[in-house]
Design brief:
The protein has 8 helices and 10 strands. With 248 residues, the protein is α/β, with parallel strands linked by helices. It has a domain of 121 residues: Rossmann fold, CATH 3.40.50. α4 packs across α5. The longest helix is centred in the C-terminal third of the chain and has 18 residues. The structure holds adenosine-5'-triphosphate and magnesium ion (MG). The site of magnesium ion has 5 residues, from α1.
C-alpha cells in the first residue's frame, strides 16, 4: 500500500533522510521507531506529500504521491499530528468532523455532528466535550480529539504520530486497542510513530527502526527481541550504552 524507495531529504546541511526504503503491505500496521530528531515525522510528512523529498520515490496504492489528483489522494488518509494541530477557534465537534463539513466528503451538519460524537465516544470522551474549545481541554484530551478527527472519515490509510504520548497508562491501552481495531476491523493500513515500547508491541505487525537517515532494521514485531541488531537492542531496552550516542 505504501512504498518508499531510496528517499532522501535534507534541510540545508542537515541530511535527515539518506536513502529510506520501506514497504507497508495493505491492511497491516507498521510502527516506526527511532531516536528523537532522526526524521520519523519528516518521513511521514513525505508520504503525505506535506514535505517534498529531494530524491527517491513514494507510491501509495501504486500511485506516485507527487502526481495525480491531490484531493482524491488525501481523501484516503487520516492523520494524527504529533502536536495535535487542532483548530483553536472551532469547537471540538467541528474539529473532529472537519472533513465531513466540507469538500468531497461533505455531509449534512447534524449527521456530521453525530459522527463526531460517536468518534469522541470511541476515544473515551463524553458528548459534552463536543461543544468545548480545544483550550478548555487537558493535553491528553486534546490528543484524543486529534485521534477522533483522524478516524472520523473512516480512512483507508491512517497515520499516527505519537498517539499515546501524554496519556495515562490506561488511556494509552485504550488507544492502542483502538488502533488495532481500526486495522483489523476496518482493514486500514496504518503507519505509527511512537517511543512507547508497550504501544509498539500492542499495535505493530511490523516494526522499522530509523537511524542515521536509513531504516537500520525492519521485520515482524515477533522478531524484534532477537534481531541481534545492536542499535535496535539498545533502543528497545533504553540503554545509555551502545552504538547510538545519547548526546548529539
Ligand atoms: N520544516 C523543517 N525545516 C527544517 N528542518 C526540519 C523541518 N522539519 C524537520 N526538520 C529537522 O529534521 C530533523 C528530523 O525531524 P523530525 O521531526 O522528523 O524528528 P522525529 O524523528 O520525528 O523526532 P521526535 O521523536 O522528537 O518527534 C530534525 O533535525 C529537525 O530539526
Ligand atoms: Mg516526530
Amino acid at each position: 500500500m505504501i512504498q518508499l524507495t531510496d528517499v532522501h531529504k535534507a534541510f540545508g546541511s542537515n541530511r535527515v533522510l539518506r536513502g529510506v526504503n520501506l514497504t507497508i503491505p495493505k491492511g497491516t500496521s507498521m510502527v516506526i521507531i527511532g531516536g528523537s530528531g532522526t526524521g520519523k515525522s519528516v518521513a511521514l510528512k513525505c508520504v503525505l506529500g506535506l514535505v517534498r523529498p529531494d530524491s527517491g520515490t513514494i507510491t501509495v496504492d501504486g500511485l506516485n504521491v507527487e502526481k495525480g489528483d491531490r484531493d482524491a489522494f488525501l481523501a484516503k488518509f487520516g492523520m494524527l499530528f504529533q502536536g495535535g494541530a487542532l483548530f483553536d477557534s472551532l469547537p471540538v465537534w467541528q474539529n473532529v468532523a472537519f472533513r465531513l463539513l466540507r469538500g468531497s466528503l461533505k455531509r449534512p451538519k447534524d449527521e456530521a455532528r453525530e459522527i463526531a460524537i460517536e468518534k469522541l465516544r470511541r476515544v473515551g470522551l463524553k458528548p459534552d466535550v463536543a461543544d468545548k474549545y480545544p483550550a478548555e481541554l487537558s493535553g491528553g484530551m486534546q490528543k484524543r480529539v486529534g485521534l477522533a478527527r483522524a478516524i472520523a472519515a473512516e480512512p483507508e490509510i491512517i497515520f499516527f504520530d505519537e498517539p499515546t504520548t501524554g496519556l495515562d497508562p490506561i488511556m494509552s491501552g485504550v488507544i492502542n486497542e483502538l488502533i488495532r481495531e481500526i486495522v483489523v476491523e476496518m482493514g486500514a493500513t496504518a503507519m505509527t510513530i511512537t517511543h512507547d515500547m508497550t504501544s509498539v508491541r500492542a499495535i505493530a505487525d511490523n516494526v522499522a527502526m530509523l537511524h542515521d537517515g536509513v531504516i537500520k532494521w525492519t521485520g515482524p514485531v515477533a522478531q524484534m527481541d532477537d534481531s541481534g541488531d545492536p542499535y535496535l537492542d539498545q533502543f528497545i531496552h533504553g540503554r545509555a550504552e551502545g552504538p547510538i550516542e545519547a548526546v548529539r
